[in-house]
Design a protein that fits this description.
Domain Aldehyde oxidase/xanthine dehydrogenase a/b hammerhead (chain B): 26-141
Mean pLDDT of chain A: 95
Protein name (chain A): 2Fe-2S iron-sulfur cluster binding domain-containing protein
CATH topology of the largest domain in chain B: Aldehyde Oxidoreductase, domain 4
Distance between the termini of chain A: 40 Å
Structural class of chain B: alpha+beta
Shape of chain A: globular
InterPro entries (chain B): Ald_Oxase/Xan_DH_a/b, Ald_Oxase/Xan_DH_a/b_sf, Ald_Oxase/xanthine_DH-like, AldOxase/xan_DH_MoCoBD1, AldOxase/xan_DH_MoCoBD2, AldOxase/xan_DH_Mopterin-bd_sf
Strand content of chain B: 15-25%
CATH class of the largest domain in chain B: Alpha Beta
Strand content of chain A: 5-15%
Protein name (chain B): Xanthine dehydrogenase family protein molybdopterin-binding subunit
Largest interface: A-B, 58 and 64 residues
Number of domains of chain B: 3
CATH architecture of the largest domain in chain A: Orthogonal Bundle
Oligomer: heterodimer
Number of strands of chain B: 28
Shape of chain B: globular
Low-confidence stretches of chain A: none
CATH superfamily of the largest domain in chain A: [2Fe-2S]-binding domain
Strand order of the largest sheet of chain B: 3-5-1-13-10-11-12
Mean pLDDT of chain B: 96
Pfam family, one (chain A): Fer2
CATH class of the largest domain in chain A: Mainly Alpha
Radius of gyration of chain B: 27 Å
Order of helices and strands of chain A: EEHEEEHHHH
CATH superfamily of the largest domain in chain B: Aldehyde oxidase/xanthine dehydrogenase, molybdopterin binding domain
Number of strands of chain A: 5
Distance between the termini of chain B: 58 Å
Strand order of the largest sheet of chain A: 2-1-5-3-4
Low-confidence stretches of chain B: none
Helix content of chain A: 25-40%
CATH architecture of the largest domain in chain B: 2-Layer Sandwich
Largest sheet of chain A: 5 strands, mixed
């Protein structure tokens, strides 16, 4: 069976090759955590992790992902509780309407591993930049119309600190 | 329907975490497009008209109908009957018919001409791509020159008169130093992250509608009027709304089309606007041309304020915003004149976008005031302090409370206005600092709520109010928890259901005060009922709910009764109370405004023209703050909007077809995370009991008002470049530098 794995569970690929990963999640798997904000890869609301890397689910066709492991917001926490970044988002009020939040958190989780792996962002090519500028740059693919940007950066910083402590 | 996890009492004002937060961070909050009925949901995709203002002469659906999975293709030939668009005329605009596929009239570019309903999105989208149509039109009519705007709107949003004046304006303007300026603000769009989406199902009796809307009650009226159905046969739910900002005050094409599909097929039908369709199907803010004339005497006092606004008004849709409101209220002057004119044009719907009037009015007017301060050679903070109006400058009516001066002084102190440093002369990147004031009207809108007390001590609040990111779930929980001194975890807030009592809905910064007061009034009534049942005089005893006990009174007279005992005779062993609120006399007797002062620091690269925001600070007075955490977030969000208006947002007209060119989030720029600098907020907190019994006033639109002008003024401070045509993009900065 041609399949892909979502949050640890296998699903057969859809028959219709036009199905994006995002529409597959919504129509076939009934997971609605990844949101459709633009369907053009411009807003980041559908961000999921594919083999640990963040990607826009609206820009991937499901059949491209045979054998791949996908993590959505529903699979971000490792146990019944909340992931440290999810907790930090609540604490820092890093959202208002909540529609971009799944994508922000998936991006934030990927960002933390990018930093651990020394994956550069564009600001690394500038002569002078701050850690905060780097995080802002890395979170700029996720639009938030409620304007929770500074709280989102606070949440990412808190989650990074907590991770460091544990 | 969140209940808090908070095991203790949450007081009014406390910076409590959102009670719907855990759902939202797990992707478990159910937005409109995520509801599932027992039957599979069909998917509808519509085709929008290629051009505006004309007649549909041809629509060919044959190829689409023959595609696999397609269940129906609806056009004006076969769609269910509807009442003509905008009827009845005496209904408010959110309750009028929003008929589509009803005749051959094309109201605007992108107006629906056909709806394909299929089993899957992929099938519906492809079939829709096969539909062809033609529109006969004379070509779109636009507003280009300010002189073309000759129509006086009947009224302005917020209830303002189109034209007001006091004093001899010509004399006031000409007797001292006079500046004449023309400011322009572009068309803008709310661009809430959740595109408008509806799932509808007609079970033969009831029409069930899950949609994303700010006001439930008028949504029911709109569907009843559009579909010729009784209101009691329509059930609308909207428990989570992925942002509104005015664009979801009423229902739009997704809702009507989903209902038409559901009625036609007797199966659930989902219609989600594609992001590109949002730009045309949902309303936008019209562009404005604001001609401003100001004068000041040698000592820096304003003599004359003249503000003339010209804006487009969409055909068949009477909405005009009060861009001149801030010019009427902020500063005293010998003479003030404020005039609004519109031209009816071919355009997608023009309606509210966050802080109608004031967001773009303040952008222009507070920039113009800065020009006057500079021309007077007076520090912009001092100039404003010297001219703040102590009462309404035109009517003389007193403010209920007014802390504009305190906001400005505290803001200057916290921001370090007197310690601002300039860039080195030889540095091509220049630092600049700006200030601007904010005045935003405060309203109470009629609102009702019901609370139900169970015999285990749990309370549920029912109101058709919405939480569009504003924190309504959380603050209503705080109102009840505070009143009954009970743990928030025992309180459930049920919002966004049209079967609940009709609330004010979300909009116009009236939501929190109005709905929270109605809930508070319901608490008081419930408390009085409990006192009566305990044999105590009504209203003379405080009532607390601790565990399963009712505790009434204090000290020696305190009584305690078990709820199970007290409610054993009541129907369902529960007690219910309703609360409502209406604007009182103090809304006629006093001018009610929230106010604030904005400060900004920017850098401007004089080689590239790029503006970078370093920091924004805002100090706000909005009476009692109901939740400092959510209030701060909302104000910061408004400040981000202001920054975005100053520097980025510009919805470009398509002069060929009457729609817009840049209909996606890559081409319509709004601020991303890295565009925003450090951002901070503080409060001058003093309850205003003339506003409502909780002492709170509106904040949803206060943060945006003035925020953009502070940035524009900082750009000018940095470089001397005064850009009067927003947004301040690099090309305009370079042109202004000369």
């Amino acid at each position: 069976m041609a399949a892909l794995t979502i949050n640890g569970q296998e699903y057969a690929l859809p028959d219709d090759p036009r199905t994006t990963l995002l529409d597959f999640l919504h129509q076939h798997v009934k997971l609605f955590g990844a949101k459709k904000g633009c369907d053009h890869g411009q807003c980041g609301a559908c961000t999921v992790l594919v083999e640990g890397e963040r990607m826009n689910a609206c820009l991937l066709l499901a059949f491209q992902l045979e054998g791949k492991a996908i993590t959505t917001i529903e699979g971000i926490a490792t146990d019944d509780g909340l992931h440290p970044l999810q907790q930090a988002f609540v604490k820092c009020d890093a959202f208002q309407c909540g529609y971009c939040t799944s994508g922000q958190i998936c991006s934030g989780v990927a960002l933390m591993s990018e930093l651990e792996q020394n994956t550069p962002s564009t600001v690394w090519f500038e002569s002078d930049y701050s850690d905060n500028e780097d995080i802002k740059e890395r979170m700029s693919g996720n639009l938030c119309r409620c304007g929770a940007y500074s709280n989102i950066i606070d949440a990412v910083n808190i989650a990074r600190d907590n991770k460091g402590v544990s | 329907m969140p209940a808090s996890k908070h095991q203790s009492v949450t007081k009014i004002g406390e910076a409590v975490d959102r009670i719907d937060g855990p759902l939202k961070v797990q992707g478990k909050a159910t937005y409109a497009g995520e509801f599932e009925f027992d039957q599979p949901t069909l998917v509808g995709v519509y085709v929008g008209a290629s051009r505006s203002g004309g007649t549909l002469t041809h629509v060919d659906t044959a190829d689409a109908e023959s595609q696999p999975g397609v269940k129906a293709v609806l056009t004006y030939h076969n769609a269910p009957d509807q009442r003509p668009f905008s009827e009845p005329g005496d209904e408010g605009r959110f309750g009028q018919s929003r008929a589509v596929l009803n005749d051959t009239t094309i109201r605007y570019a992108g107006f629906p001409v056909a709806l394909v309903v299929a089993e899957t999105l992929e099938q519906a989208r492809y079939a829709a791509s096969l539909i062809t149509h033609d529109v006969a039109t004379d070509g779109p009519d636009f507003l280009d020159d300010v002189k073309e705007a000759q129509t006086t709107p009947e009224s302005l949003d917020g209830g303002f008169e189109p034209d007001v004046s006091c004093g001899d304006i010509d004399h006031a303007l000409n007797s001292s130093m006079r500046l004449d300026m023309t400011y322009r603000t572009p068309s803008q769009i709310s661009a809430a992250m959740e595109p408008h989406t509806t799932i509808a199902y007609y079970d033969g009796d009831i029409l069930h509608v899950h949609t994303s809307v700010q006001i439930l009650a008028s949504a029911v009226t709109c569907l009843a009027n559009t579909l010729n159905m009784p209101e009691e046969k329509i059930h609308v739910q909207s428990p989570f709304v992925g942002g509104g900002f005015g664009s979801k005050l009423g229902l739009h094409n997704d809702a009507i089309l989903a209902c038409l599909g559901a009625i036609h097929l007797q199966q659930p039908v989902k219609v989600a606007l594609h992001r590109r369709q949002v730009f045309h199907s949902a309303p936008h803010r019209g562009f404005s041309i604001q001609k401003i004339a100001l004068s000041a005497d040698n000592s820096g006092h304003i003599n004359g304020i003249s503000h003339h606004s010209a804006m487009p008004m969409a055909q068949d849709y009477a909405f005009a915003e009060a861009t001149g409101a801030v010019a009427r209220i902020t500063y005293k002057a010998d003479a003030i004149e404020s005039v609004h004119r519109v031209k009816v044009v071919d355009s997608p719907m023009i309606d509210s976008c966050r802080a109608p009037g004031d967001s773009i009015g303040s952008l222009a007017f507070e920039s113009a005031i800065d020009e006057l301060a500079l021309a007077s050679e007076t520090d912009p903070v001092t100039f404003r302090l010297n001219n703040i109006a102590p009462a309404h400058p035109i009517t003389g009516k007193p403010f209920s409370t007014h802390h504009l001066e305190a906001c400005l002084k505290q803001g200057a102190e916290e921001f370090g206005w007197d310690k601002r440093s300039k860039s080195e002369d030889n540095n091509t990147v220049k630092k600049g600092y700006g200030v601007a004031l904010a005045m935003r009207m405060n309203m109470i809108v009629p609102s009702e709520a019901k609370i139900v007390l169970e015999n285990d001590g749990k309370i549920t609040v029912f109101t058709d109010m919405t939480d569009i990111g504003t924190g309504t779930y959380t603050i209503l929980s705080q109102i009840v928890s505070d009143f009954f001194d009970m743990p928030a975890s025992n309180i459930t807030i049920n919002l966004g259901d049209s079967r609940s009592p009709a609330s004010c809905g979300s909009g116009g910064s009236f939501g929190a005060s109005s709905s929270a007061t109605s809930v508070r009034n319901a608490c008081e009534k419930l408390s009085a009922q409990l006192c009566q049942m305990m044999g105590l005089a009504q209203g003379t005893h405080t009532v607390a709910l601790h565990d399963n006990q009712v505790i009434a009174g204090e000290g020696n007279t305190q009584q305690s009764r078990s709820l199970a005992d007290l409610l054993k005779e009541t129907e369902g062993q529960q007690l219910e109370a309703k609360g409502e609120v209406e604007p009182g006399e103090s809304h006629d007797d006093y001018e009610q405004y929230s106010c604030g002062a904005h400060f900004a620091e920017v850098t401007v690269d004089t080689v590239t023209g790029e503006v970078r925001i370093k920091r924004q600070h805002g100090v706000f007075s909005a009476g009692q703050i109901l939740n400092k955490k959510t209030a701060t977030s909302q104000l910061q969000g408004g400040m981000v909007w202001g920054a975005s208006y100053a520097l980025f947002e510009d919805l470009q007209r398509d002069r060929r077809h009457g729609g817009f060119v840049n209909c996606d989030l890559a081409e319509y720029h709004f601020a991303v995370n890295r565009d925003i600098g450090d951002i901070s907020v503080s409060f001058i907190e003093e309850p205003d009991y003339k506003a409502c019994k909780l002492g709170s006033k509106g904040i949803g639109e206060l943060g945006i008002t003035g925020a953009g002008a502070a940035i524009a003024n900082a750009v000018c401070d940095a470089t001397g470049a005064r850009v009067r045509d927003f947004p301040i993009t690099p090309d305009k900065v370079i042109a202004a530098l000369g």
